[in-house]
């Protein structure tokens, strides 16, 4: 027996209507997904912003309270220990059980201006000509002292080591480099800082992180 199929042909208008309906459904699905994404994004952002603002306020209030109390404690320490009122030294206080402590330190915020780059050029010329082929260890040591930190700045502690070596060599590039390095240093600000620490199982001090990047 021969099977026959009866095909129903759609008109052009009917095909266009079906295609139009399909496009509307697809567009509606896209709009629905976009709206769901945007609503979720807004909810997440609002939730996190609310939490961040709350933490910021709490941290500000804690910082103010901590500084006020530590400054008051320092005044008592000055009176109790007969420390000069103009003294800016920091201090640390440790709990009776020796497991917790707070460090209150006076720090100088400093930087080096463009003369530090000039200094580096002179010092590089010096170590290239004076050490590279003769004393690899000395070459690497001075080069290490000239390395910049993650912010692209010289470290004051390393620069101070170079200062101490000023009279070790009479080379003009060395002398000029150290001179420029000293001139480039500038003190930007001075401030008190505080850290809170707890002893771990190894008896070492771990700082309690108060920054998101350190938690």
Automatic annotation (TrEMBL):
Keywords: Coiled coil. InterPro entries: Phage_B3_Orf6. It comes from the Bacteria. Pfam families: DUF3164. Residues 5-39 form a coiled coil. This is DUF3164 family protein. It comes from Pseudarcicella hirudinis.
């Amino acid at each position: 027996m021969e099977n026959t199929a009866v095909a129903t042909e759609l008109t052009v208008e009917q095909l266009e209507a079906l295609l139009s309906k399909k496009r509307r459904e697809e567009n509606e699905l896209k709009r629905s997904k976009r709206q769901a994404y945007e609503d979720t994004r807004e909810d997440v952002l609002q939730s996190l912003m609310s939490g961040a603002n709350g933490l910021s306020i709490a941290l500000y209030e804690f910082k103010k309270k901590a500084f006020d109390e530590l400054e008051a404690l320092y005044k008592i320490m000055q009176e109790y220990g007969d420390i000069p009122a103009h003294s800016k030294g920091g201090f640390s206080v440790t709990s009776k059980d020796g497991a917790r402590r707070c460090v209150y330190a006076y720090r100088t915020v400093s930087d080096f201006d463009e003369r530090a780059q000039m200094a580096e050029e002179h010092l590089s010329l010096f170590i290239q000509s004076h050490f590279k082929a003769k004393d690899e260890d000395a070459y690497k040591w001075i080069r290490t002292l000239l390395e910049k930190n993650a912010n692209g700045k010289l470290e004051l502690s390393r620069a101070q080591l170079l200062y101490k070596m000023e009279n070790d060599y009479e080379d003009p590039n060395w002398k000029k480099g150290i001179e420029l390095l000293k001139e480039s240093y500038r003190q930007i600000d001075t401030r008190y800082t505080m850290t809170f620490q707890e002893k771990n199982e190894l008896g070492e001090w771990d700082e309690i992180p108060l920054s998101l990047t350190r938690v």
